[in-house]
Amino acid sequence: MIKSIFGLTKEPFNRNELSLLPQQKHIVDIIKIHSQQGGFSVVIGEPGVGKSVLREHIERFDKERDITVVSCVRTLHTYWQILCQLADSFNIEVPEKQLEKTLIQNAFNHIKERKTLYVVIDEAHLLDMQVLRKLRLLFEQFPKKHNVILFGQRDLLYYLSMNVNKDIKSRITYSADIKPLNDDDIERYIIKELETVRLGINTFDIAAIELIIRSSQGNLRLCRNLCYGSLIEACRETKKIVTITHVNNVLVQPHWRSHEELIKQQVA
User: How would DSSP label each residue in 16-35?
Assistant: First the structure.
């Protein structure tokens, strides 16, 4: 609908490959450095601040000749599930008893080929600490040229800060907290998305942009969803300018209401 109304070949706010923001680029650059010495990297942040975009960017490193990326994005990770995904990436099939030893040997073979290994674990705050401890013991036997990247919410750092988990925390060589964007960054993101698909920056009027910035509260995913939904509302009326009315038509949808508002509405 958006492409036909605006005469576009690509839709804004709905592209598969999202460009990194400055704070995400900085994190990637530091992780690349730490990947030469082993250990764990931890990237935390609330849902929607840009962890998934960062993870997908790192996963695309796998297309490079000298890098192997193993991505564990399934929820409720168990130790053996993660090892099986590692085995799949190395294209090895061995009995379970030999899996750990074979993985270590293959990791050394990768280093002989001058490859760097990245192991990406998403939703790491859902990992049982005993699973993480077993992974720590396994990766200590890997060659130095690797990095285990844990993506999760702030609960992960809370668990790692406990005395009983100091053995894991001491292996963290780098950590980053992805912060919500400020108002200027959100506005720049909206303008960049419009420019990328060759739409005018006046596609959203001033009042609409102000309401989007205020409602998204620095959350990149909420901003993207709100902008995309507002564009759809404008296209439904065959309008080429998104106004505050179109934004409000999205904000009245139940999933945009706060928990307190929904409770009050239910009582009323």
Answer: SSPPPPHHHHHHHHHHHHHT
Domains and CATH numbers, the chain: 2-7+181-267 (1.10.8), 22-177 (3.40.50.300)
Angle at 53 between CA 146 and CA 251, to 5 degrees: 155
- Averaged over 27-38, what is the pLDDT? 90
Compute the distance between CA of residue 85 and CA of residue 122 in angstroms, rounded to an integer: 13
What sections of 143-254 are H helices per DSSP?
155-160, 166-169, 183-196, 206-216, 220-236, 244-251
Q: Structure pTM? A: 0.83
Apex 56 CA angle, 10 and 25, nearest 5: 90
What is d(CA 128, CA 135) in angstroms, rounded to the nearest whole number?
A: 11
Cα–Cα dist 124/135, whole Å: 12
CA 64/CA 206 separation, integer angstroms: 43
Express each pLDDT in 163-173 by its tens digit.
Answer: 999 999 998 99
